[in-house]
Structure formats: structure tokens, C-alpha cells
Structure prediction request, 339 residues.
Amino acid sequence: MSPSKNTEPTRRLVDRFGRVHNNLRISVTDRCNIRCFYCMPAESVEFMPRDHLLSFEEIERLVRIGTTLGIDRVRLTGGEPLVRRDLHRLVERLANVPGIVDIGLTTNAILLGEQAQQLRDAGLKRLNISLDALDPEIFERVTRRDSYDKVIEGIAAARAAGFSPIKINAVSVKGLTEGQIIPFAELARQTDTEVRFIEFMPLDADSQWDRDKVLFADEIVAILQAEFGPLEPVPSANPNAPANDFRFADGVGRIGMIASVSQPFCSTCNRFRLTAEGKLRNCLFSLEEVDIRGILRNGGADAEVADAMVASIASKNEGHQINSATFVQPDRPMYSIGG
Ligand code: SAM
Ligand code: SF4
Prediction:
């Protein structure tokens, strides 16, 4: 990967609140091989027509233009990014873009058994695996699919390919995943695994989200402290990191909380998103988008694409309004935005 000093940004993606954006999350597909209830509908999902998806060439062009505006980190997501054919080829292209210093991938790991080594060889350094339960029955209740063994296989393949530490993100849902917290903590304490619990956000397809279904970070900390003794906050090396990390009293292992609902981290946000069909979203909860695919496919110049990115960031709101009575859930659920 090329060092950022090769491409000095000509402008920066700064919003009205002074937040500088250097981190782009790129969705490569809205398709998925499971159906997590907090993200997708159970049945009859209407996916984007394939010719609506940005090609790898189009994504690479957008990222190259983004580096002139200070983008130096990208993360591939979806839907499930590993269902997009030859994803490693995109990783390879992006790894060769001057100015890109970090490429991450967020995956459910079901197809990692086949792809982990290829991705590693293509230049992928960081992998976040989404797994909400270590109990196969709870896993099936969340995902509405029987793929637990494939996930475990995928995690083993990721380890064998050299991804270290293994990072697991677990969405926490009240009345469903409380029993998973201690087993995940044991995993974090006994193996080279970082576990982060994510609060359930109102981005589901069935509009079933309710505050009462959020297992809050403070409640998770209380469950952990009752078992392991006091947790100690660990100051983060990265001021833009969404997770609050804690270490256990005996010094063995650490655990993270992504408290998007109860402790929003909007004031330090440096991220924006590109949907699989080429819409820029300046926030997960944004109600507006900027159409980049239209510019790319209508012969738009690089400067037009850059202006569209600048405009998207310029219109970013101060923060999400989940905790306000006026909150409006976006009409696109998580799988169609790109998490
Ligand atoms: N399919 C991949 C995966 O699951 O890792 C990538 C896409 S998924 C949308 C990205 C992340 O968003 C996953 O960690 C998932 O658990 C999380 N997610 C999806 N819907 C969510 C919701 N309503 N609240 C909190 N996290 C959610
Ligand atoms: Fe698929 Fe990821 Fe959504 Fe689960 S969270 S349905 S794995 S896109």
C-alpha cells in the first residue's frame, strides 16, 4: 500500500462542524447469504439489478479521486461483500491506489474459508467478522439461516491466513443475546480475539426496532463486571474510533463497546459511505444521498465527482437523532446502505 505522502490532498472533506472525513465505507453488493433480523427482511428481498452496481473500475476511480480530498482509509462492506465475485481483485486494485494506507473488510465469514488467503494475498490487512452468538441456536435465531459451522470454518481460515488479532463484532439484542456476553468475554480472554458489542440500531428492514430491544453498553458492562470484577476503560489510540475499550481487572484480555444509541460518537465521526449502486451517504442515518454513479456513467470529469463528494460532506448533520422524538428511520435498511 502506498504511503499517503505520495498524494497531497488538494482539498479536504470538512463539514460545517469541522469534522475531517478520510474514511470511506464502500458497499460492493446488497446481496447476502443470511438474513439477520436486524438488517434484512425474512423473505422476498428485492436486490438491486446487477448493472446498477458500481464496477470495480468505477469504485477504483472514485477512490483515486477521493485520495485527492484526503481519503486514505476504505472499508469494504455490503450486504455480504464476499458474495461479490472476485472481491480480491478489488482489494488488489485499491491496495495499489497511491494514498490509500488501510483497507478493511466487514464480513459474516461464511465464505471466508474459500477466500481468506486470497484476500490476504491481495493486500487486505484488517478483517472484522460479524458474529452475534457463540451458541448455534441463537445464531440461527438471529440470522434465520443454519450457517454457524461455516462461520467457524471461516474464522479458522482467517487465522490460518495470518489475520491477527481476529476481530469479532456482535450486535446485542435485549432478551436474546445476554447469554452470549460471558462466552464472548471468555473467548477474548483465552484467544487472540478482540470482541466488540454493538448496540442494536434502528436500521432494520421490518421497522421492529424499539429502545426496549437495545441491550445497552452499560448493561453489558454490568453483566461482565458481575462475572469478572471491575472493568477499566482503556484510552483509545485513535480519537475517531467508535468503540470504547475496557480491560479486565486481572489484566487478561479486553473488550469493546460500540454504544451508537446510548453514547453516540457523532462528534468525532470521520466516516461516510458509498452504496453499492453509487450513492454517497454522509451518515448511516442520512435521509439524503448524492448520486455518483450518474456522474461516472455520464462522462463526468474527476472534478465533478470531487465536487459531489465535497457537497455530500458539506450537508452532513451534526449527529443522528435516534434519541430524539423527531427521529426518522431511513427508508433503506442496513443491508442496502452498507454497514
Ligand atoms: N454482511 C457483512 C457483515 O455482516 O459483517 C457486512 C455488512 S453488515 C450490514 C455490517 C455490520 O452491520 C455487521 O456487523 C452487522 O452486524 C451490523 N448491523 C446490521 N444491522 C444492524 C443494526 N440494525 N444495528 C446494529 N448493527 C447492525
Ligand atoms: Fe447479511 Fe451482514 Fe445484514 Fe447479516 S448483517 S443480513 S450478514 S448484510
Notes: The longest strand covers residues 166-172.
